[in-house]
Amino acid sequence: MTDTTTTKSAVRPSLLYRIWDHELCYSFRNSPLTIGAAVVTLVLILAAVFAPVIAPHNPFDTASIDLMDSELPPVWVEDGDIRFLLGTDNLGRDIYSTILYGMRISLLVGFASVVLSAVIGIVAGLVAGYVGGKVDAVIMRIADIQLSFPTILIALLIDGISRGILDRELHDAMVIPVLVLSIGISNWVQYARTVRGSTLVERNKEYVQAARVIGLHPVLIMLRHVLPNVMGPVLVIATLGLAFAVLTEATLSFLGVGMPPTEPSLGTLIQIGNDFLFSGLWWISIFPGATLAILVLAVNLLGDWLRDALNPKLR
Asked: Mean pLDDT across the chain, nearest whole number?
């Protein structure tokens, strides 16, 4: 008996091998473009997380900033300073360090707003799809109304309301939560519609009917049985939504209703550089803009791969 058990355990593949041999992992390692996008995304995220360690200067420390170092070009251009690899802005802040810290803010707002959108959308979609009837009609009509307005307009509206309710100092202190709320609320509809559609299919399957028969509470059925089976499309939307959220934050900051110049994100840096672009100070906006474009492109490529990998019709 012992020998048989030992033989079975020896034959059973390890967890790492099963992960490596999974269809998703197989698809990933056989796509060089996806691997490259994942590496770029990981490098940028790690650079943002460890910005205080990697950055040679702290752009938020006003005591270390010297106005005499303002508007210096990149180090390879004439009059460049070796202390500032990508040059400095109009306040003397190191562009390279500011990009690292700015990317940190952009990713923080992006991740937080995606989580908020996903939570609101998943809850609304589960309730609408599982309960149905008037509840479904009300939730979907609210979603349809919101879809008739551009996302950026809704974000601007929420930001404007917060500026009217809060005084200036309090609003500046809560600018990140306000941005997360603005972007999160404006993007929940796509999660809700996707989850609702999947829930309408899942609620009529036998395992859900069996859960109802044994007397499980509808909330438990939705969370324990339905939710795990509708998470595939949600992961795809969340991945693509991260890139869209970062772009939305950059747009709001570029329009002057996002992060203040004292705590710049990538959008704020582009907005600052735009004022000096025609003065020949191209590096102030070009490098943050290129970083934003590379980050969004890499995340979008990952989202496209995940969408194709989780599509059973393409397997």
From this structure: 81
